[in-house]
Write a structure and sequence with these properties.
With 349 residues, the protein is an alpha+beta fold. The chain has one domain. Helix content is 23%, strand content 23%. It has helices spanning 20-33, 35-41, 44-55, 67-73, 90-94, 100-103, 141-145, 150-155, 197-202, 293-299, 307-312; strands at 3-6, 12-14, 106-107, 112-114, 119-125, 160-166, 173-175, 180-188, 212-218, 229-235, 243-245, 263-264, 269-273, 278-284, 289-291, 319-321, 326-330, 346-347. Strands 2-1-16-5-6-14-10-9-8-12 form a ten-stranded mixed beta sheet, with helices on one face. A three-stranded antiparallel beta sheet has the order 4-17-15. Strands 7-13-11 form a three-stranded antiparallel beta sheet, with no helix packed on it. A hairpin with a 5-residue loop joins strand 1 (3-6) and strand 2 (12-14). It is globular and about 55 Å long.
Amino acid sequence: MHQYVERLSGTVMTEKLFGDRIVRFLYSRAREKAPFLFRLATSARMSSLLGLYHFDLRLTPRLSGNSRFLARCGVDLAECVAPRAYFTTPRRIFERQIRYWQCRPMPQMEGGVVSPADGRVALGALAPDAPLFLKDKFFDYAELLGADRRRWLEVFSHGDYAVFRLTPDKYHYNHSPVSGRVVEHYSLGGVYHSCNPGAVVEVVTPYSKNKRVVTVIDTDVAGGTGVGYVAMVEVVALMIGDIVQCYSDTGYDHPLRIRPGMFLSKGQPKSLYRPGSSTDILLFEKNRVRFAGDLLEKGRRTDVHSRFSLGFGRPLVEIEVQVRSLIAMAKNREPIDSPSLDGRGQGGG
């Protein structure tokens, strides 16, 4: 069993993990007794084939547009840009575009950092003296950014981080968490480990072993959020075929590939994961951000059955957050205790 906390209500939710039996088999028995099968399952080729089987087969007439099917996936088509008749395959459902400017309002706060995705977030720190210190659990730090990226390894050393896990049912566009100018953008090769919490606990630092894309943003520029350098690491996973970079200043219009020198506006679409589970990791410089108080409090709860708490030997609970919701503030700004419950002071993008 794996549980998380719903942010606004504080309700403890039990997650129905996608393909949990298969994942448990692969990451326990197969990994030890059939390493060839394990390597095959986490390869790019197998991930692509699994994605084709699960997401590209046309829905039968009984399932096409079926309310129970969509409800089971947690999909609200009323949020979507496309009409209901468009959603004839699981891929179209999972790659859906939503009217985020209406249904995911963003707080208009200077110095605010927002969630890059609809997902479940866990907070951590790289500094040994920090309360959130977690060493070599989700990722190996040097491996995550690339061992040859010495500049960024130094910049984010002893900083804070947030890990956002997107389950297969989630809205799969990533949005920029901050405003600023892209300093560097690069890809790193790797395998396709599952992002299932059980797999993360079983395999040492899986997120830094998967294929991933790194975007470093300088927010200390005109119009920027003012929280220093921020690294956004987009990590592929089982059944994720690609990460499509498609930044748009307005809606989803005129998408552009990310490149150095480009200015990204906070809350705007940045990229799209192909269907499956996947993960975003944000890295911050030391002493530049303060996480929201409610996220810190909920992340330390001891009444939640979290596989991360069991596997890492300390309370570590995920909190479900929405894309463009406030997760942190610049350190020199007023702290935030909880998100707005009524939407006042929030606006579109």
